[in-house]
Design brief:
single chain; about 600 residues; disordered N terminus; about 45% strand; 9-stranded mixed sheet; about 0% helix; 3 helices; Non-NMDA_GluR_Accessory; CUB_dom; 6-stranded mixed sheet; Jelly Rolls; mainly beta; 4 domains
Length: about 600
């Protein structure tokens, strides 16, 4: 255990005998954080691996490590070394390895850095005492989005001026420029903001103005409001911050939020979403900081995202990345890709699950085609099997939720296609055409900003074909014929998913006979037509199963019980070959004898 670390109890959090956690908000004072090998300045113990996890709470923070002493055995770099990883585990990306006495200064960004110290067997002359290093967290002076920030220079209350996209942009009024800024959706789609990079003023505003079809998604990472009794506030406005308009949310001092908890884990995001294309943050402070150091300044930082609901789907409430596409209002075709690359995901660590749902209209189908799949972890616990019934993930020992995968699932939760593990690029494209809603679910078991997970690209198309849906038929007899919408250009892994229903409701007493005919010789698992009693209390109307037609029956009839005048037919298919069938039904209707005639002559009289 490091004696130096023991002398600075605020510098690091003791995790185990040889593991330490260093957090930026605990190391603000110069010289408050040091790293040292076990036992330093004495000899370090042999055959030991120690980990020093360094975490930041802001995208603007850089980690500076300066080695003041380093003495490890020469020519023993495979056993005695210092390895630095861009992440929180040794499986993260390796940045640099130090050995011998090469004291190289290190500068890296977060959010996580892992320094691993390894020692091997004792080496003569037995005087190697390891390392001593100072750790400093430095705020970057410039923002990665600096070219997209427009300072506001207003001197009169109530001034309205034009933003970069030509719309009328309300601006928080100050008497001096330098603390009010605009982020335009025309110039940048995602980024970070930080009030500490601006000149100090009692009141600062950050205005986010998107394109006409945008909404604004903001996540607050860190803030510090030190004044008593709500004398410093953060106000969030859903739209223009005009005189008399109340903020949709108000954060009152004293209040502090860090992106991480004391153990180094990221806390749950605090997010706000606009109802239109504008959102404004206003930071009002009681007075200037007592000193120029960061520890005394009230501040606010976080990330933003402009989300185009016309192109990128309708963002679902209380979610980070779940969106819906509607066949009646979304573009008839478009592209989708993996989420997780926008700055809003900076403080996400752990399992990430995002869904993109496609909802065709009553006369539509939707086609999803996965064309690119890269960096999918070759997990030995999961492999992909593609056959006539689609591509499926076969998990071994571990549940699927603990492995990276791309899943296509129905509204009812049925997995109709899944890609994981050893899936190969040459098996692409994989296409699925469905006449009912589909979700594309992107799942990364261990997401972090440095290791963002696998990449996928896909296209979608809403097809106006009226082949399948939910129909109500009142005629006592009739015929339903399948339609062929197949194409000669379809690839090997092109699948059809159908869930169609026909409600036969003649509202008269009858003996119903239903016949199905097909020339296809397919198993019942590929597709089938089932006959159900109608259950009006259920949303889908599917009641008790009465009979099932399978394609290998070729031609078959079924008659439900007498006087059953309403039945529901349901087609279910998941196959490479589009079902071809003819469904016919007819009714034998019994009518009462209502003929008027005279009295019947008695048999006795007739005799």
């Amino acid at each position: 255990m490091s004696s130096v670390a023991q002398e600075s109890p605020r510098s690091a959090l003791f995790i185990s005998e040889c593991d330490w956690l260093y957090q930026d908000f605990s190391c603000r004072e110069p010289g408050s954080c040091v790293l040292a090998s076990p036992g330093y300045p004495g000899l370090y113990p042999p055959n030991r691996q120690c980990k020093y996890l360094i975490t930041t709470s802001s995208i603007h923070t850089q980690v500076h490590i300066t080695f003041t002493a380093l003495l490890l055995p020469h020519n023993h770099c495979s056993t005695d070394y210092i390895a630095v990883y861009q992440g929180s585990t040794p499986s993260s990306h390796l940045l640099v390895t130090l050995c011998g006495n090469r004291k190289t200064p290190l500068q890296y960004s977060g959010p996580n850095l892992l320094l691993e110290f390894s020692s091997g067997p004792p080496v003569p002359p037995y005087d190697y005492n390891g390392f001593l290093a100072s750790l400093e967290f430095v705020e970057k002076s410039s923002s990665t989005e600096s070219s997209n920030i427009i300072p506001i220079k207003t001197t009169e209350p109530g001034v309205m001026s034009k933003s970069v996209d030509g719309t009328s942009a309300p601006r928080h009024v100050t008497t001096k420029p330098g603390c009010d800024i605009i982020y335009s959706g025309n110039d940048t789609r995602s980024g970070h903001f930080n009030s500490r990079s601006l000149s100090w003023r009692p009141s600062c505003s950050m205005t986010f103005i998107g394109r006409p079809t945008d909404i604004v998604h903001v996540s607050l990472f860190n803030y510090m409001l030190r004044a008593p009794s709500c004398q410093s506030v953060v106000e969030i406005y859903d739209g223009p911050a005009e005189e008399g308009v109340k903020p949709s949310k108000r954060l009152c001092s004293p209040l502090t939020k860090h992106a991480r908890d004391p153990s180094g884990r990221f806390l749950e995001q605090q997010t706000f979403v606009s109802s239109d294309n504008m959102l404004i943050l206003v930071l009002r402070r009681l007075g200037p900081p007592a000193s120029s150091t960061e520890t005394n300044a009230e501040f606010l930082d976080g990330a933003f995202l402009f989300h185009d609901e016309q192109v990128d789907g309708t963002l679902q409430p209380d979610t980070l990345c779940d969106v819906d596409y509607y066949g009646l209002s979304s573009p008839l075709e478009g592209r989708i890709s993996n989420p997780g690359t926008q700055h809003l995901f900076w403080n996400i660590e752990g399992a990430l699950r995002c869904s993109q749902k496609f909802i065709p209209a009553a006369n539509q189908s939707v086609t999803i085609t996965v064309s690119t799949l890269a960096r999918l972890s070759p997990d030995p616990h999961c492999h992909t099997q593609c056959g006539d019934g689609g591509c499926h993930c076969v998990a071994n020992l571990l549940p699927l939720s603990q492995m990276d995968h791309l899943l296509l699932v129905t509204d009812s939760g049925q997995a109709v296609s899944c890609l994981c593990g050893d899936f190969q690029q040459q098996w692409l494209p994989v296409s699925l055409r469905s006449w009912s809603p589909l979700k594309v679910v992107y799942s990364v078991a261990h997401y972090s900003w440095n290791m963002k997970g696998f990449v996928f690209k896909a296209t979608y198309t809403f097809n106006n074909d009226a082949v399948c849906g939910q129909s109500v038929i009142m005629q006592p007899s009739g015929e339903i014929m399948s339609r062929n919408v197949s194409s000669v250009s379809m690839t090997l892994n092109y699948y059809f998913h159908q869930e169609c229903t026909w409600l036969l409701d003649s509202r008269v007493e009858r003996q119903l006979t239903v016949q199905l005919a097909t020339h296809q010789n397919r198993p019942c698992t590929a597709w089938n037509v089932s006959v159900h009693a109608y259950e009006e209390n259920r949303i889908d109307g599917v009641g008790q199963l009465l009979h099932t037609f399978c394609p290998r029956d070729h031609t078959k009839e079924y008659s439900p019980p007498w006087r059953v005048n309403t039945v529901l037919l349901r087609l279910k298919a998941m196959t490479r070959t589009l079902p071809q069938y003819a469904i016919r039904w007819n009714s034998q209707i019994v009518r009462a004898n209502t003929r008027v005639s005279g009295p019947t002559i008695s048999p006795v009289h007739s005799a």
